[in-house]
């Protein structure tokens, strides 16, 4: 069966997926990798990718592209999101990626990011939900909301410039977070999310990306991380509220040691957790489902699915 790969270069992390396309058009994962490289460090303030962030990301990109080819991938699609969109020196990063990893990185819009994340969630969760699906994609630099119907049509999508890294750099000045730091983040998020339209009746919310999966893994002490134990799980509003309180009151070094925590994510997880909590509250819901399959899966279907192969 033919194999294809996608690499999702985000503000905080880089994710690799290599999958086989079955004769029925489904994709079965062969290899998955994730590394936190913090490409978007400082971008909110400087509007430039730092030399350190670019070097760490390019090094991982080289390694992931090599692994994908060794695993038999016929083609590799690479996307970059918020940090690369916002940075004035994004073209420099794209040129270096081509030279060092032999891949063409496409900087996708927030709207396309939302579409791809929804496609990935719809493929896995539509059969479980009789009503509309809401998708929440919390990244390092931006957060996407997508409302869609059971048939897979997107009715609303919007990308907000709030992400775990961006909120941490903008508002966090103490360790652990002071009550003032937390209050400023929450006030900013509540003001931002006022722009959201009310969700349709009987809608189910699914959260994707590393913040959501990490929070579920910490809540259930899943260590080492096992995607099958995380994908399809649920976090209630009560669980989220207690977990946010716990993470915000804990020093970063203590957070790093929590079962289920990626150590490199520990500094930005309180801000990410607050984004999830305030999102659930803004939507008037009682919790969310958890998806381990985000943009990289949507990109896989978009670029290498049966319909794409025929076009």
TrEMBL record:
Entries under InterPro entries matching the protein:
ATPase_NBD, GppA/Ppx_hydrolase, Ppx_GppA_N
Q: Which SUPFAM superfamilies match?
A: Actin-like ATPase domain
Q: Name one Pfam family in it.
A: Ppx-GppA
Give every Ppx/GppA phosphatase N-terminal domain span: 23-301
The UniProt entry, under Gene3D superfamilies, shows: 3.30.420.40, Exopolyphosphatase. Domain 2 (3.30.420.150)
- GO molecular function list: pyrophosphatase activity
| Superkingdom of this protein's organism | Bacteria
The identity of this protein, by name, is: Ppx/GppA family phosphatase
From which organism does this entry originate? Myxococcus stipitatus (strain DSM 14675 / JCM 12634 / Mx s8)
